[in-house]
Amino acid sequence: MSPLIPLFSWREKDRGAEKLYGAIVAQARLPVFYQGFGVPDTLEGRFVVLSLNLFAVLHRLKADGAETRDLAQELMEQFTADMETVFRELGVGDLGIPTKMRRLAASNAALLQGYEIALESGDGALASTIAAALPLEGPAAEAASRHLAYYLNGLIRRLDSEPLSILQSGEIKFPEIDLEFR
């Protein structure tokens, strides 16, 4: 065994978090969220769908406590790096990035905390919290948020039954998306 292996062990961890984050992003890009659920296919709409999927995984990791703290942290680092890339692609300059990232971090933390509180309060509260985050108003926001709340609850149930080792390896099996949940 090489004496350098401990120096490079962090790379294996990063790959798991990177792979897991990549799967979350791929799920958030599925057309069903935008064509079937009615979420606007905009930067803001995609951010909400991404944050819901990220929340579900973080919620599952939080249930395992200290054992998954590093993975959750690495996942958030992947998210932060991804958002910085998005800002740069949108033309935000180097001097503006720190300010935008601080605002994003604060709003994302509040959004994730809001989802956590709403999840504990029931389906109505969850749908209302999601509706408030969506770049929609009125009946369109209500309809999309009901679909997303139903999806999120199914995803959380699915992740709760997922062995931790699967998530740690960067694998995730998302549930089938059912448009007919009424």
The total number of structural domains is 1
Overall mean pLDDT stands at 85
Rg, rounded, reads 17 Å
Proportion of residues in β-strands? under 5%
User: How can the largest sheet be summarized?
Assistant: none
Q: Helix coverage percent of residues?
A: over 70%
The rough form would be described as globular
Distance between the termini: 57 Å
Topology pattern, helix = H, strand = E: HHHHHHHH
- Class derived from helix and strand content: mainly alpha
Give start-end ranges of low-pLDDT stretches.
Answer: 7-13
- Tally of alpha and pi helices: 8
How many beta-strand elements? 0
Describe the overall structure:
It contains eight helices and no strands. With 182 residues, it is mostly helical. The protein has one domain (9-168). The radius of gyration is 17 Å and the shape is globular. The chain starts with a helix and ends in a 14-residue tail after the last helix.
List the helices and strands and how they pair.
Elements: H1 5-28, H2 31-36, H3 43-63, H4 69-89, H5 97-121, H6 123-133, H7 138-160, H8 164-168
Helix pairs in contact: 1-3, 1-4, 3-4, 3-5, 3-7, 4-5, 5-6, 6-7
